[in-house]
UniProtKB/TrEMBL annotation:
Family: Belongs to the peptidase M28 family. Belongs to the glutaminyl-peptide cyclotransferase family.
Keywords carried by this UniProt record: Acyltransferase, Disulfide bond, Hydrolase, Metal-binding, Protease, Secreted, Signal, Transferase, Zinc
Protein name: Peptide hydrolase
Top-tier EC class: hydrolase
GO molecular function: glutaminyl-peptide cyclotransferase activity; peptidase activity; zinc ion binding
GO cellular component, one term: extracellular region
Organism expressing this protein natively: Mucor saturninus
EC numbers, comma separated: 3.4.-.-
Amino acid sequence: MKWSMLLNRLFFCCIPLIVQCYKELPNESLRHLAKFTDPERLAVNGTLMKPLLVERVSGTSANIRVREYIVQHFEDLGWHVELDEFTDATPFGEKQFANIIVTQNPDKPSRLVLAAHYDSMYQPDFEFIGATDSAIPCGILMNIAETLDDLLSDGSIHYRQKDKTVQMIFFDGEEAFQQWGPTDSIYGARHLAEKWESSIVTHPKKVMKNRLDQMEVLVLLDLLGTPNAQFPNFYRSTSWLFYKLIGIENRLNNQSILKTVSSKTGERLISMFNPNSFLTFMGEAIGDDHVPFLTRGVNILHMIPHPFPSVWHNRGDNADCIDQAVVENLAVIFRTFAAEYLELDPLPHNEL
Ligand SMILES: [Zn+2]
């Protein structure tokens, strides 16, 4: 992604507000969801994360191996898997890219979309892993899927939402090869947003014209896994969801579910979510995979810390900078967020 104050601010006029009810789960259900955390799966050397923590520059065989790993994960879960393959011109010639789109139940018309990019930055001078950028975010998404999958099955008493499902997008080609710019960055997101804009979708239960209309909100995770992260509230249209995240963090803290993470000064951080950031409602300041969707009217929740981690785009962005407690906390926060958004209850009331 790119820090830039130069993007214009005209995007906001076309953003529709999502209006829906959002039911908070009782504390007993929160505690149950938290039990799905398997620290081994979320550890940097663990079975889920380790295959992601490798160089995976777009167009390389290592990138394809990571792609196959992600695809296999979702095929094993029985989700619908789709590859959006294309070639594009880069400063180093034509390259092949492939976005991965996985959907829990593609027959449902509306989607909570969670996304991260799986490519890593090209760096000729040293091995760049991109643990925060964005191996750990990809792993957190895969973990949300594997921990909620049983509850999401059709006909499940846990999941009564008939028209809404969860979709995940693993973007390729987020990183610039040479210098961040309109034609050298977010290759995958640019391709997919344009493709979906020109798609035609009809559904008996929802009026919509294309696949972008199926996206109730695009939640983009980036640069996650280091301590002291502070997330600004970038968009008015999704501010209510930002405050839901603050509420989830508070409720999980009150249940002593979140692990303690110390700040650089040794104090316990109260919140990862900062509603008083100077970047409040200034989503245009940071370019990332969400931009081609934002400009086409999709609601965006951008989960990227500001300031960026100190290891951003340098050799320190590897497994050593990742804090296990932070990863576990983020995993349970976003797992709870997805469950509440989808009206998924691990302990449903039988009388309903
Ligand atoms: Zn990056």
